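Components:
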Amino acid sequence: MPDNGCLTGEFFMNGDNACAEGAISAGCRFFAGYPITPATEIAERMSRRLPVVGGTYIQMEDEIASMAAILGASWAGVKAMTSTSGPGFSLMMENIGLGIMLETPCVVVNIQRAGPSTGLPTLIGQQDIMQARWGSHGSYEIIALSPDSPQQMFDLTIKAFNLSEKYRLPVLIMSDEVVGHMSEKVVMPEIRTEDLFYREMPQKGAAGYLPYKTNGSLVPPMAIAGQGHHFHVTGLTHDERGYPVMTSRAQDQLITRLVDKIRLNADDIIMCNDYMMEGAEIVVVAYGITARIAQFAVKQAREQGIKAGCLQLVTLWPFAERRIGQLASQVKAFVVPEINRGQIVYEVERCACGRARTLLVPHSGGEVHKPAIISAAIRECHADR
Amino acid sequence: MPDNGCLTGEFFMNGDNACAEGAISAGCRFFAGYPITPATEIAERMSRRLPVVGGTYIQMEDEIASMAAILGASWAGVKAMTSTSGPGFSLMMENIGLGIMLETPCVVVNIQRAGPSTGLPTLIGQQDIMQARWGSHGSYEIIALSPDSPQQMFDLTIKAFNLSEKYRLPVLIMSDEVVGHMSEKVVMPEIRTEDLFYREMPQKGAAGYLPYKTNGSLVPPMAIAGQGHHFHVTGLTHDERGYPVMTSRAQDQLITRLVDKIRLNADDIIMCNDYMMEGAEIVVVAYGITARIAQFAVKQAREQGIKAGCLQLVTLWPFAERRIGQLASQVKAFVVPEINRGQIVYEVERCACGRARTLLVPHSGGEVHKPAIISAAIRECHADR
Amino acid sequence: MSKTEIRLAGFGGQGIVLLGNIIGKAASIYNKQYAALTQSYGPESRGGSCRAEVIISGAPIEYPYISNPQIQVILSQEAYNEFGANAPEGTLLLVDAELVKMDKPPAAKTFTIPASRIAQEMGRSVVANIIMLGFFSAHSDVVSHEALEKSVVDFIPAGSEAFNMKAFETGYNYSKKKHGPA
Amino acid sequence: MSKTEIRLAGFGGQGIVLLGNIIGKAASIYNKQYAALTQSYGPESRGGSCRAEVIISGAPIEYPYISNPQIQVILSQEAYNEFGANAPEGTLLLVDAELVKMDKPPAAKTFTIPASRIAQEMGRSVVANIIMLGFFSAHSDVVSHEALEKSVVDFIPAGSEAFNMKAFETGYNYSKKKHGPA
Amino acid sequence: MKLWRTPFDRNPDAEPLGYIHIDKIRCKGCGFCAEYCPREVLHMGAELNYKGYKLAAIKDESKCLACGYCELICPEFAITLILNSNANKSEEKHPV
Amino acid sequence: MKLWRTPFDRNPDAEPLGYIHIDKIRCKGCGFCAEYCPREVLHMGAELNYKGYKLAAIKDESKCLACGYCELICPEFAITLILNSNANKSEEKHPV
Amino acid sequence: MQIDDVTSYERSIAKYLRQDRLPHIWCAGCGIGPVLNCFLRAIDSAELNPDLVSVVSGIGCSGRVAGYVKLDSFHTTHGRAIPFATGLKLANPQLKTVVFSGDGDLVAIGGNHLIHAARRNIDMTVICINNFTYGMTGGQVGPTAPLDVRTATTPYGNFEPPFNLPWLLHASGASYIARWTVLHLHQLELTIVEALRRPGFSFIEVISPCPAIYGRMNKEPEGLDSLRNYIKRSVIKHGAGPRETAIDHKGPIVVGKFLDIDQPTLQDHLIGVAAKAKKPVKK
Amino acid sequence: MQIDDVTSYERSIAKYLRQDRLPHIWCAGCGIGPVLNCFLRAIDSAELNPDLVSVVSGIGCSGRVAGYVKLDSFHTTHGRAIPFATGLKLANPQLKTVVFSGDGDLVAIGGNHLIHAARRNIDMTVICINNFTYGMTGGQVGPTAPLDVRTATTPYGNFEPPFNLPWLLHASGASYIARWTVLHLHQLELTIVEALRRPGFSFIEVISPCPAIYGRMNKEPEGLDSLRNYIKRSVIKHGAGPRETAIDHKGPIVVGKFLDIDQPTLQDHLIGVAAKAKKPVKK
Ligand SMILES: Cc1ncc(C[n+]2csc(CCOP(=O)(O)OP(=O)(O)O)c2C)c(N)n1
Ligand SMILES: Cc1ncc(C[n+]2csc(CCOP(=O)(O)OP(=O)(O)O)c2C)c(N)n1
Ligand code: SF4
Ligand code: SF4
Ligand code: SF4
Ligand code: SF4
Ligand code: SF4
Ligand code: SF4
Ligand SMILES: [Mg+2]
Ligand SMILES: [Mg+2]
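Structure:
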């Protein structure tokens, strides 16, 4: 372990632990959380690791408090994270909205289990995907990433912090129980300063600083507490000064910017992985652990001479609208396996716009798809017409 | 006022009050809530009215408790309601999920204001539409209604109770600040027993009662506390006995039924109002107060010789998928004005499937659309090609 | 189809929303017209400015907001500055003379009454709005006098009917006295 | 591409997940193979049944679950009844003879060791799993002996290396003694 | 600290006041019953059940006072105390 | 109950210790200052401001002790106490 | 020997236990079982009509109790058993509502509901299994965990001072407060009977071992280790004051009945509301 | 007369007040303004570096305070000021964190955070404007509203017993507890100074009029009516015990400093954790 306390090298580790290490490597020095299966291991590892690297771990009284606390910590200038699963994620929604409104960088990890309600606490679901996008009241955009392995847990946690610092909003890691709990090799490179993104900040004590003045870019520089800016921020609709303004005009200016800073930067944000996509006629669109199962099925299909490919959505939100739209004109069908009763499939269907068939392969949760079920769907589409 | 304490006759009343009276007329005898603009008047009226009709009003410590309390009350056999706005709605999400899982009839009213976060507390938004569908973790379906006037507030509140009793789930009334606060004439008819739906119940003390055994229908009869059934219910995945079963098979059986009881009954549930739809080429799809503005614009368009019509979504969820799909083959374009940055429009676009243009007329909130903006969109679509 | 837009504006505590309700109910329930009342809400309105707006129409009202009110009832200087002063010709402006100073005569047809002073003189300053309503009734027949009377009774605390009716008639008669029959 | 599936099954508290981790790490870090470890979690597993499953492969592992394990290590009667008893021919079954009664010989190639008793005799019953690991190493070369040794050291509390190595060798040698070189 | 309500001075030669039944499927070998039986009627035996738990067993039932404490403290609802209806009925039985 | 820290026994003929400025835009006429000024320097006048609030006004500034209570209690931050630097400086001033 | 002579067990609790769900999920040596045993006996001892008893639990090992009682029983969401039970009780005041849950559920995430229910003095009995930790999720620190203890999230020792629950509940407004350990079973049963009969809000804290997790990390790997510890440390002191009921890592555990007072319940107050509401309101 | 001789007001608070936002939104006769005034004076009196003072508010009329202070200030969500401030403080222990909010915000929806923050004894000062109601939303009953009072949601009189906040906070673990009314401004200022200086969790309750809503419904339609009432009813009693600090509809309002003790803060405990964490852990 180098001096800075970050791990480097090769480890055999589960996804939850890899996520914690990714956070430490990304410079996260504050974690507030509340235990919940199957995310608890992240909190546990942070409770051990943060004091070692000079950070602070606190277990709050609930998830609402955890979410509020990481927002506070972020305004103190510290990279902050929390982790949870479905029930806690639901509780965090209101304060994720506050994070959006105050434009507060932070990372929220959801290790998904099967719901609704308490459901199957120890077993997988991918059922909070639309909730990630729409779970808080009001109009906003969000960024959500979906790792498929402990390695990606590590990598995408760093990525999540970078995106959150760059675009000033809570970034969600929408993982799942299988990825969180399975152990694989994780390679942790040495993280250089240039690998990390830090929020733009005003000069310390700069006079005339306005918290939401953007200087042309869509993301305003962010002051932090204790530096003499004496700034004000509010969850109310506000102007550049951060002052509440109760008009629809102020609302429009603010919301348009909050939405545009994501929508107009979608190309910078969105990541997809192509798997055997060359000449693919049937494209399996998948994410998280399901992307791996899909790849397994795609490989088999190719072996059977079916031109199948897999488009892995590493970024769930903003949705890879353009990519799906382009593919729709080229391919015969999209197969969308999800461990839910249909979520991302709605987006695929919308963007396919009738130009390619869209076939959902739903799963109610508790385990991953059997590859054969996805293969069957591929074959069904292949046989079409 | 007749003996039963329900109002009948004609009243000049705002939407919030009409909602409360609708609840009383529907037989609601328990209300737990927490004040929030612009929904507070519902709670206030309930606090005055319920004791008169032998019901109970309680102000809980927060919205989470309010939601939990109405679930409890429903299991005591009493029709129960809560009301809130965005921030409180976000907080209720976890326990709405519990309501779904336990299959608990109750009504949740959201008088929408502009968000995200605290936003514009006293001004309109229609920004929680997708949240209504997706706001709780896990896979489920929901029913959500959208009134356009105090009269519909009254009528749809009764309808909401009926649907919730029939399908055993929380039914959402997704209203907005303008409808909640504006006053108009409300006609309250005498409600007869046959106008109201009551949950099917097992015989009092019936031996061998299984809480989630359905007898072929998708909705099991519901025992209530204190009748000698000694039943158990849990938010965990469960079998017919209500016992937790931690398998993906049990999950699939349960979730499939929870989803199907709404999906397969969509035609029974969905209500749309047609306005000048005869021969319409441009269809404005709108809901809540916006439906009225849209109708205003449609009337103007017709006067200008444009074949416009308005499809008012009285039921938001389940979405009027089939209707939009049918219309898509007949019309030139859908115009979708929403007081948000795009929500229902995604569903319209998906269902239109490329067969008709879909044009969003977004509004960030704080006021309703100027009719001219909707008119302009209609004209734009009319001029197309 | 006939459609009248009315704005009532002043500050919190003057009973402006109540006035809106009385007019709206009178029109919709007793006169069988369509009526829609909207108002400005919020903490900012507490003690500060306050507004109620009524549309009365012979046909269903789709768009519930007013754009060019034919009638404005102005109960504060602020409201006058914002709305009353610019009321166009051909519209009706009713102003509490006690609360508003008008620098130059507005373009609108303007009538004033010191409603709040009269109310104080009557011993209950809360009835200023009802006095104003009587004055309104004298100057506009968009709602019938009888309908307004009935509606007033519906909204006021039981036991205060006589006093409020007196206030209502006082406002009505003030106009009659000053301007003759409307 | 070579791919081996391993199931480790018993009850909570036996250190089964630890075994999975040791094997997984040995394979992936020290032997440079691909390895994926999954396990059954949950309150029901506490004190009750417990399972860890490892896939070791020369190529990336997409589907991380096992279907037909070539090797099963069985540490409880329940696990034996559910899995071990039906292990098909051609697979390897390693059983703690102290904890499992086998009614009829299974189809699989089966070796037994009273690991828990040996551990007790060594004075630290917690090392039963490491003894079993040594036994495993003797019967399978899916992971190298050296890799397993290194991996054991990585996972055990500092200071207990010697004792654990002794346990590991004990298990290994038990087999050598009983069956000769694998 | 008083944990039991028992007639400790009871004649040790009298017929046992109760019999103890231990459900071997349910017992998880926690040892509570054996440790807190006031008369050492129970002890932890050597037998393991199918889940691998060491079972509680009866050492000397004759001493049983039928105090019911073992039944009450067993976390597994594994112990059933059967009152001996023949045992000197005159001796007062405390209510359980 | 003690609300003020004031040298009540001060010579009433001395120059006032402070002057009071009332911001007429901010004042909402709550009357706190007038009611709790220990020397009745302030009272509620008849003037209304543009929002219709009845304004606080100065009745007799000469009595002002510069105790600062009016400034402190004014909910609107509408009162400014200006210390009279000429007033007999020898008299001890309490810290505000 | 045959089990036909009906026994105390059969008589008193078998009918209230979902035997079809045994063995239960709790670990060997867990203290929840004995508490449940006492509670089920108390139903008869308090002469309640079991048809009218509802048991509501949150989420946690302790929260699983609702699933083992053959009564109307509700396994709700984490922390929300009390508001759920509040709705149940207010909608049907005839019901006897018992909330059975853990320290994390009732005092961490559910702490607000706990103090507000006590404030309202709603007629409800809350039985809190205090094992100083979140057993279900693997032994993280909880709001009653003494300073310095090891848990899964306090590897360097707990750094947050714990609540003194009897004091908190007293200050919140409860009518009945008691504490026992899982060894004080007869006392516990009597206390539950009293609590069930006392109108208003009653709170019973039961100190209980979690050997599998908390114990393992704190040198009490067996339930018996904890029980022996309780014998050493517990001191019965009825009516003990707020300062005496704090629990630290090593010191005495004061048990007993701390409060039992008569004060108007929420229902009492609501009867007044109903009376005043008789005359119809204006629209 | 010219305002050039710098005044007390100018000297002490003008620099901390966002004058560009005045007049503020509070109603005529509302008590929040004077409390804010005291707080701003206290910053200098306590000799704090204003750069290091952060003010965090929730939602409510009282919660608007954050918007009027020219300090780093956060207007968060309803009830969540304390956990937000907790994150702020823990991430930068140099900051002086002050939470300024209302009874509904801090004690109703935020009650759990309040008691947990007190339990942790985190270094934070909480100023609670208790106007017995939810002013911002139009005067509904709150958890401190005395029995029988009229509010927008208790048209037949309040039927829920209220909290006794000093007692609740004491039982939760706070280090410093005081209560004043908006009339006791000098005392309040001194108290705020003490609280800001006292390491650990300090809680100051200020009884404050809400004439526009609560007062109007309870025969105190003017702020002055309430203030006169406070003069009549308030009794200074430092160190008053838990039974004395309850407030009912008509009886005495006991004010004063009730608690001021030295006990290790959360930060003190965390320093220990950091020390123990020095040796790197195993992966
Ligand atoms: C909203 C939410 N957050 C977290 C969890 C995870 N969770 C389940 S049980 C539990 C703690 C239980 O602790 P306690 O109530 O003390 O019960 P015990 O298991 O110790 O008996 C937690 C945090 C959850 N189910 N829901
Ligand atoms: C989650 C949520 N619920 C409800 C509200 C509505 N709300 C705003 S302020 C408030 C109460 C404020 O009361 P208090 O804290 O006592 O402040 P006051 O206005 O009395 O000063 C409520 C319920 C909200 N903003 N957010
Ligand atoms: S009843 Fe049980 S505890 Fe009591 S003496 Fe008999 S065996 Fe021992
Ligand atoms: S108390 Fe029960 S579980 Fe424990 S050893 Fe005795 S019989 Fe077995
Ligand atoms: S400072 Fe203000 S309160 Fe004090 S005497 Fe002068 S005017 Fe009166
Ligand atoms: S205290 Fe302030 S607001 Fe009140 S009357 Fe005096 S100057 Fe005006
Ligand atoms: S984890 Fe602890 S509390 Fe949960 S069942 Fe096991 S011993 Fe009991
Ligand atoms: S409503 Fe009440 S608390 Fe709010 S500003 Fe007005 S007087 Fe103050
Ligand atoms: Mg616990
Ligand atoms: Mg308040």
